[in-house]
Design a protein that fits this description.
It catalyses: beta-nicotinamide D-riboside + ATP = beta-nicotinamide D-ribonucleotide + ADP + H(+); beta-D-ribosylnicotinate + ATP = nicotinate beta-D-ribonucleotide + ADP + H(+). With 199 residues, the protein is α/β, with parallel strands linked by helices. It contains five helices and five strands, in the order E-H-E-H-E-E-H-H-E-H. A five-stranded parallel β-sheet has the order 2-3-1-4-5, with helices on both faces. Helix 1 crosses helix 5.
Length: 199
């Protein structure tokens, strides 16, 4: 049995940390990260202001990402996933393989939509998001005005698209909450969904 969950987030929303912590708590769990599918800088478009357009789907090898996810789902046991379950996992969940897909543009790409069991979206207010972004070092580094000129507008654009899609079932999470609160909520939610699968 396979269970897929998607963790989407505004930049620096905490999705990678949350995914890694969940992986350590859940049975037979693996992670695929959208960040691993960025095109090289030379293939990323530049707009008229000189901004590299990284926060769009065209900056990513999305076909390769979908292929990786589908390959994992076909044979999760061969993916190198650790099959040593956490001690508190009940027996009936030990036959489930869990894939966490984490990224910043997951729900706006149609070929991924049929693959999910649960969707989470970590949100942050503007000031906190900008503050966290300023503490990170990117390669290539952010140019002056990049956050306000490209990153934040793209986040708002994609989030609005999701909110306008009534059929899209997404659990929006407050990224300003502590990692412990977020982890506790998502873990409990996943276990509840897994138990439903096994009933």
């Amino acid at each position: 049995e396979i269970f897929t969950m998607f963790s989407n987030s505004v930049t620096n929303g905490g999705k990678t940390t949350l995914a890694e912590k969940l992986k350590n708590m859940l049975p037979n769990c693996d992670i695929i990260s959208q960040d691993d599918f960025f095109k090289p800088e030379s293939e990323v478009e530049t707009d008229e202001r000189g901004f590299k357009l990284y926060d769009v789907l065209d900056a990513l090898y999305m076909d390769e990402m979908v292929t990786s996810i589908r390959n994992w789902m076909k044979n999760p046991a061969s993916s190198g996933v650790v099959t040593q379950e956490p001690q508190n996992t009940c027996d009936k969940l030990k036959s489930v393989y869990i894939l966490i897909v984490e990224g910043f543009l997951l729900y706006n790409y149609e070929p991924l939509n049929e693959l999910w069991n649960r969707r989470y979206f970590l949100t942050l207010p503007y000031e906190e998001c900008k503050r966290r972004r300023s503490t990170r070092v990117y390669q290539p580094p952010d140019t002056p005005g990049y956050f306000d000129g490209h990153v934040w507008p793209m986040y708002l654009k994609y989030k609005n698209e999701l909110e306008e899609n009534a059929s899209m079932q997404i659990d929006y999470l407050d990224g300003t909450k502590s990692q412990e609160e977020l982890l506790s909520y998502v873990y409990s939610d996943v276990i509840r969904e897994l138990n439903k699968l096994k009933e």
